[in-house]
Amino acid sequence: MTINLNPSDKALVPFVSVDNMMRLIHHVGIEPMLRGLADYIEADFKRWELFDKTPRVASHSAEGVIELMPTSDGEVYGFKYVNGHPKNTKDGLQTVTAFGLLADVGTGYPVLLSEMTMLTAMRTAATSGLVARYLAPRGADTMAMIGSGAQSEFQSLAMKAICGLKTVRLYDIDPAAVEKARRNLEGTGLNVVACKSAEESMEGAQIITTCTADKQYATILTDNMVGSGVHINAIGGDCPGKTELAPGVLHRSDIFVEYPPQTRIEGEIQQLAEDHPVTEMWEVMSGLKPGRSSDKQITLFDSVGFAIEDFSALRFVRDRIAGTDLYFDLDLLADPDDPRDLFGMLQRAKG
Amino acid sequence: MTINLNPSDKALVPFVSVDNMMRLIHHVGIEPMLRGLADYIEADFKRWELFDKTPRVASHSAEGVIELMPTSDGEVYGFKYVNGHPKNTKDGLQTVTAFGLLADVGTGYPVLLSEMTMLTAMRTAATSGLVARYLAPRGADTMAMIGSGAQSEFQSLAMKAICGLKTVRLYDIDPAAVEKARRNLEGTGLNVVACKSAEESMEGAQIITTCTADKQYATILTDNMVGSGVHINAIGGDCPGKTELAPGVLHRSDIFVEYPPQTRIEGEIQQLAEDHPVTEMWEVMSGLKPGRSSDKQITLFDSVGFAIEDFSALRFVRDRIAGTDLYFDLDLLADPDDPRDLFGMLQRAKG
């Protein structure tokens, strides 16, 4: 099977199911795929100014949020559907599920539909690893991983694959979650340490990743917990009213973000003044602004996830499934022989 | 096959392909389905104030536009992906293709994915028929149908099914398109008259529908072509820079719209002052404002298509496919037994 873009094939859209996404990840390898995703994301961050950028379109309810995240580089258009429902886990459902699409800007025809629950976990971790490669102290090899939810193992492995992490120190308020993550990371080559407190997890760590899901634990890192010379990778403060860091930590840090108009609404910096200085990661990756500038500096990546990262991840998937059996074609688009004859196509289907 | 919303089934999303949509339309019957869609749209217009409403999110390029149209009634969320590329027909592609989704607001989990190229044609026609039932002159039985593109036959049949239309008078600048539409409407019970000019098509017509695709033909109706006492159903003026009616026609008409913030950007009224008075159709359907108030009045439905109509159409499809074989389940959502154990699900898939 190959992806053929001849007009006669455009009625069919290649679809990557959850099952095929997992097969793709194992086909490429988890760590090589995390590195590959980081390469695609870095390439797109370096051509940042080409993209149509808009804050995500959110539909909020009492239970959570449903968002559409569109972007375009002028040739390819992409969007992701993603929900965030912290209470879902109580009913045995995912907090976050997602799917995404790429389309040809020239025709408007979709060219890829893909699950993105797995892929979002992979791209979020790849982005964290990529950013840490620019911002973490030289030689950083130990990470405190606070929160052992669905993102935890992906974060740990991305730091290993992309930054050379050797030791991860796990903490979660739920010991069963820590045990789940410890067990999952067995045999990956990481030295895994289960910790009984956030403070314990941070001993000797040059990288601190915060990734908790529930709005009610609003201060994961207090000011006195954070020493100098570390890199904070703050994943979980990602919607209005949901933050994980004490304001004091923010004030002592140099803050790096994806897209300021979105991060100021959704990220840790919603706690700060609207004009608090931040640096955009695309500027660091393009060499326009410095990343880490001293050993004593606290760098903070206030990560909320941006549409371009999903676009990069979908590009990676599209490129990697070509010539494989890791997708099937969906009959998603009506494509009559004569485009003006949609009704005739419908009539002929009756026979 | 039934749609089961038990948690264990939520990883699978019912999908209606183009083929199954055409089977559904014939299963229900084209005219009964147009009436059914009109009923669902009317029911949603009557509870208009419940909905989250936002102008569509558009990504414009030199060749066309790709849009996302989200809405929610607080319990169900829906969105449509739709493109508009007038030049596509030259390459044998559809000007407009679309697909859509419904999701549960409480969990954020999608509950229906459907093709919407066919369905959009059906809902656009059903909306026109529904609005004409409120605005067309009493006893209107003849329509001028200007433009014989993909929407033409659907518009004609919707006016028959919903308003009792008996005669349609077809005109297009391309005689082959007129012939296509005439042939397709044979045997439907409509009296079909092929005309050689827009003026000829309007002889004796109480309803005038304009539905042309190309931006270059910007004045389909001039002021001296339109007499009093008609209903104009203006479909084709539906994006910035694309209009079909002379300003004089607009100034003589009482104008009815779906959602003013969107219509003022995309509809015929983009030619008028920002505060030009318009009436919202939901107010007419709810009995809050009058529709047609005199025999001499020119009523104009400045139709651009709104997200709630797609929402209604998707609701109709979801209700009608239950218990049928007109869909299949897509493996779109990763749903591990333990929602925090996404990585474990990935690892277990390796074996």
Automatic annotation (TrEMBL), chains A, B:
<dbReference type="InterPro" id="IPR003462">
    <property type="entry name" value="ODC_Mu_crystall"/>
</dbReference>
<dbReference type="Pfam" id="PF02423">
    <property type="entry name" value="OCD_Mu_crystall"/>
</dbReference>
<dbReference type="InterPro" id="IPR023401">
    <property type="entry name" value="ODC_N"/>
</dbReference>
<protein>
    <submittedName>
        <fullName>Ornithine cyclodeaminase</fullName>
    </submittedName>
</protein>
<dbReference type="InterPro" id="IPR036291">
    <property type="entry name" value="NAD(P)-bd_dom_sf"/>
</dbReference>
